[in-house]
């Protein structure tokens, strides 16, 4: 299902943003298109703070506009299953075309419930954000903290609806993640991936990694992948429902998946769902394998595009050690007890410690 176009770019029914000629704005604003899920947007905001050289003062931070409208965001995996099933029916494929790798089965096309492309809801969110930036005469650097949202059927539609807006730059989180790996681990050839079934089936990471000579390593398809997906989406103990807290079952599962990937020769592991970093709070490695949080790459890219002089330097020697640093998948702060039934689990909050002020002047950093 594709949301219909309407003439008005400001309409909440279907915001196709139209470019308007104005004077180039002097101010810059980072735009977080959140709500996919809500906790991931908070983490991205924190990572922006953590990776910004603020010279130790509030005024040294970049302006951030964070819109989180979860009610208007359809589930990304659900939409991809629907889109694949609809495409299969439209081309009269074989009798099992209603099943996408065992995730969903449909008796016939009449039983398929229409699912709106998540790009439509995000475009409506973007329209609000763009209106705010325009009112403040600021240019926007926009990021979406969701891996599955970057699958081609969703991302391309989002760009079609928002890419022509005036003074806006979209940052592609997955492309920045690959560039991050290339810079930090130039000798790496085998990359592990833990992700939702939607991200896995879309092969969005494969399409970016394999042409560059990487081998993508994943956990076994079938029951193990279904269990991983459940460890994210289960409404009682899945990390999406408990974040920033993490249930003992979800934590144990993801550590097991990471060790499984390491045993298959993974040199780095992409945490391919933006809630997974909550499981590995304060860690950079597991079993000697580097953990890659795509939102670290996204946060740094957004800062770079807004003002490279505000970006903290990235040193290979820093990321490759096993101590917490600005590349930790989730910053560590004072532990807080998780609510029942997670009382036995200590979780990490979302408040980063303030950096000490430095007398060293800022310099441009790539």
From TrEMBL:
MF GO annotations: isomerase activity
SUPFAM superfamilies listed in its UniProt record: Aspartate/glutamate racemase
Residue ranges of the region described as Disordered: 89-108
Superkingdom of this protein's organism: Eukaryota
InterPro entries according to UniProt: Asp/Glu/hydantoin_racemase, Asp/Glu_race, Asp/Glu_racemase_AS_2
Keywords: Isomerase
Protein known as: Aspartate racemase
Organism of this sequence: Phytophthora oleae
């Amino acid at each position: 299902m594709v949301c219909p176009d309407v003439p008005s770019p400001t309409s909440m029914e279907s915001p196709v943003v139209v470019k308007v000629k104005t004077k180039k704005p002097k101010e810059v604003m980072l735009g977080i298109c959140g709500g996919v899920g809500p906790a991931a947007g908070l983490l991205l905001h924190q990572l922006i703070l953590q990776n910004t050289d603020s010279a130790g003062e509030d005024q040294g931070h970049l302006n951030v506009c964070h819109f989180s409208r979860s009610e208007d965001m359809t589930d990304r995996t659900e939409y991809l299953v629907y889109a694949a099933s609809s495409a299969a029916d439209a081309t009269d494929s074989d009798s099992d075309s209603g099943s996408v790798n065992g995730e969903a089965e449909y008796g016939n096309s009449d039983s398929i419930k229409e699912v709106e492309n998540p790009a439509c809801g995000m475009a409506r969110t973007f329209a609000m954000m763009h209106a705010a930036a325009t009112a403040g005469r600021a240019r926007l650097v926009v990021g979406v903290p969701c891996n599955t949202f970057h699958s081609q059927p969703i991302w391309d539609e989002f760009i079609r609806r928002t890419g022509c807006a005036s003074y806006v730059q979209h940052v592609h989180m997955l492309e920045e993640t690959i560039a991050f790996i290339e810079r930090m681990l130039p000798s790496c050839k085998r990359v592990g991936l833990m992700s939702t079934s939607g991200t896995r089936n879309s092969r969005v990471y494969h399409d970016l990694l394999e042409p560059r000579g990487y081998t993508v390593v994943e956990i076994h398809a079938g029951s193990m992948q279904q269990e991983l997906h459940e460890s994210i989406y289960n409404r009682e103990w899945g990390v999406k429902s408990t974040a920033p807290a993490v249930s003992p079952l979800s934590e144990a599962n993801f550590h097991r998946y990471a060790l499984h990937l390491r045993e298959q020769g993974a040199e780095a592991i992409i945490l391919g769902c933006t809630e997974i970093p909550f499981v590995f709070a304060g860690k950079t490695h597991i079993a000697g394998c580097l953990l890659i949080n795509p939102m670290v790459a996204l946060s740094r890219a957004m800062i770079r595009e807004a003002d490279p002089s505000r970006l903290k330097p990235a040193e290979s020697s820093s990321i490759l050690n096993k101590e917490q640093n600005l590349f930790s998948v989730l910053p560590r702060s004072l532990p807080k007890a998780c609510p029942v039934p997670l009382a036995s689990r200590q979780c990490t909050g979302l408040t980063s410690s303030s950096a000490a002020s430095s007398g060293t002047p800022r310099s441009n950093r790539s």
